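[step 3/7] fold_predict: job queued, chain A
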Amino acid sequence: FMAKMNATIEGGPGRTAVMSQYVLDYLNGRDGFITLETNGPSDAILFSNRETPGCVIMPMFTQGDKADGEA
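[step 4/7] structure written:
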């Protein structure tokens, strides 16, 4: 399952895979902007929304995906 969302991005392009159910569980019942913060594709992702507690989700490593610029 792949999902896309609108985003404002700071920094360079990248890809990160996460378990969709973890993200859906966090998003359930939240309105407005959701902030995702990470330092790289293999680093934890911090999800936050207004004043509610944040949630840290670890990325998954997937086979077959090549990093940008790899042949």
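[step 5/7] annotate
The mean pLDDT is 80.
Helices lie at 20-27.
exit 0
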